[in-house]
Amino acid sequence: MDGQIRTLGVIGAGQMGSGIAHVAAAAGFDVVLNDLSADRLNAGLATINGTMTRLVKKGGMTEEARAEALSRITTADSFAALGDCDLVIEAATENEAVKRKIFSTLCASLKPTTLLASNTSSISITRLASVTDRPERFIGIHFMNPVPRMQLVELIRGIQTVPATFEAAKGFIDRLGKTPTVSEDFPAFIVNRILLPMINEAVYVLHEGVGSVEAIDTAMKLGANHPMGPLQLADFIGLDTCLAVMQVLYEGLADSKYRPCPLLVKYVEAGWLGRKTQRGFYDYRGEIPIPTR
Ligand SMILES: NC(=O)c1ccc[n+]([C@@H]2O[C@H](COP(=O)([O-])OP(=O)(O)OC[C@H]3O[C@@H](n4cnc5c(N)ncnc54)[C@H](O)[C@@H]3O)[C@@H](O)[C@H]2O)c1
Fold first, then answer.
1. 151 SS3 class
2. CA distances from 221 to 144, 176, 293 (A)
3. What residues are designated binding site?
4. Is 192 marked active-site?
5. What is the value of pTM for the model shown?
6. Where are the domains of the chain?
7. Burial environment of residue 35 by CB neighbours within 10 A (0 to 12, 13 to 18, 19 or more)
8. pLDDT tens, residue by residue, 58-105
9. For this structure, is 154 an active site residue?
C-alpha cells in the first residue's frame, strides 16, 4: 500500500499542519494543504517558507531543494481539492466536535482507497474512525512539534485499523526519515500522557505561588536537565491544546489527578494561547520573551 502514497492531503495549516506539509514536500510528496481561509493558508505557507529559508542559510537544505519542495505544495480552502490524495492527515484544532465534522464531511470528496489519519494529541482514534466510511483505513499519526526538527512519530491503531493501513503509515513515516513508536488507543497515547500532566503540575506550582514562571522553568532546565522549561514548552505547544489534552485525560481516565489547573483555564479563556498569539506564560511581543508572572 505504501508505494501508492504519492499525494498527501493535510487539513489544518497551523503549527502542525504546516510542519507536516513541510517535511512531506521536502521528502518528495505532492501536498495539498487545506484550511478554513486563504489567510490561514497563506500564513501556513509563510511559516514553511520561513523555516526552509532558515534551513538553507544554516546549510541544512539547498536553495534548489527549497524551491522544489515549495512548488510541490498547493493550497485549497475546500475538501474537493483532496480528491487525488492517497493519504489525508487531519491536523486541525484539538476539539473532537471539529474533527468529527471534518471526517464525516471529508469522505465524500475522497477516492475509496484514500487512507485517513489524525494528528490528534489525545482524542480516541477509534471514535474518530467511526464517523468515516472507512474505519479500517484510519490511523493515528501523531507528529511532534516542531515537525521538521522532531524525530518521533507515534502511530496509534484504532480497534478497526487493518494491518495494511498500519504498514502503509509506517512506510510513509520511514520515507520521511522519522522514527515511529507504537501506542495503544488510550487518552493522550504515550508522550502526552506523561508530558501534559507534568506541564499541568507546573501551572499548579505557579498558581499556588510556589515559584515564578522563571523559577519554575529554570528549576526544571537546570535541576532535571530538560532542554526547555515546562511553561516555555506549554507556550510552544499552545495553551488551548494543553488544556484540551488535560480535559481528554480527565474525562477519559476519570481520575481527579488529571484535573486541568484553573490558571491554565483562565489563560485560555483570556485568549493567551502561547507563542501563536504572542502571549502565554511569557509575552513574546518584544525582542525577548518576558515572563508574565
Ligand atoms: N502544538 C503541538 O505541540 C502539537 C503537537 C502534536 C500534535 N498536535 C495536534 O495537532 C493538531 C493541530 O494543532 P496545532 O498546534 O497545529 O494547532 P493550530 O491552532 O496552530 O492550528 C490549527 C489549524 O486548524 C485549522 N482548522 C480548524 N478547523 C478547521 C476545519 N474545519 N477545516 C480545516 N482547518 C481547520 C485552524 O484554522 C488552524 O489553522 C491538534 O490536534 C493538536 O492536538 C499539536
1. coil
2. 20, 30, 18
3. 12-17, 35, 94, 99, 121, 145, 276
4. yes
5. 0.95
6. 2-183, 192-291
7. buried
8. 999 999 999 999 999 999 999 999 999 999 999 999 999 999 999 999
9. yes
Task: Please state the length of the chain.
Answer: 293
As given in the structure block, the three cell numbers for residue 275 are 507563542
Ligand 1 in reach of 93 Cβ (< 6 A) = yes
pLDDT tens for 164-222 read 999 999 999 999 999 999 999 999 999 999 999 999 999 999 999 999 999 999 999 99
Give the containing element (helix H, strand E) for 174: helix 163-175
Question: What pLDDT, on the 0 to 100 scale, is given for residue 4?
Answer: 79
How far apart CA 99 and CA 154 sit, in angstroms, is: 19
CATH 1.10.1040.10, applies to 192-291: yes
- CB distance 94 to 122 below 8 Å: yes
Domain 2-183 CATH assignment equals 3.10.20.740: no
Predicted confidence (pLDDT) per residue in 262-286, tens digit:
999 999 999 999 999 999 999 999 9
